[in-house]
């Protein structure tokens, strides 16, 4: 993962995290919108972790 891609992904994660917190406070943890935002955030975090792991594996080799 290139540094620029990593930074973009981290910005997306932080932006979505803030939005999810706002929606959760306003509509509750079990609202459909909160759940969908949480799932989107999970996917972004998984992508970040996967790409980070690939990067560390490549520098170990």
UniProtKB/TrEMBL annotation:
Organism of derivation: Paraliobacillus quinghaiensis
Top-level taxonomic group: Bacteria
Any one of the GO BP annotations: regulation of sporulation
GO molecular function, one term: protein dimerization activity
UniProt cross-references to InterPro entries, sorted A to Z: HLH_DNA-bd_sf, Spo0E-like, Spo0E-like_sf
Annotated protein name in UniProt: Aspartyl-phosphate phosphatase Spo0E family protein
Coiled-coil intervals, chain numbering: none
């Amino acid at each position: 993962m290139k540094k620029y891609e990593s930074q973009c992904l981290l910005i997306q994660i932080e932006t979505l995290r803030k939005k999810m917190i706002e929606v959760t406070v306003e509509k509750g943890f079990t609202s459909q919108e909160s759940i969908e935002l949480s799932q989107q955030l999970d996917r972004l975090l998984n992508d970040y972790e996967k790409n980070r792991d690939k990067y560390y594996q490549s520098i170990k080799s």
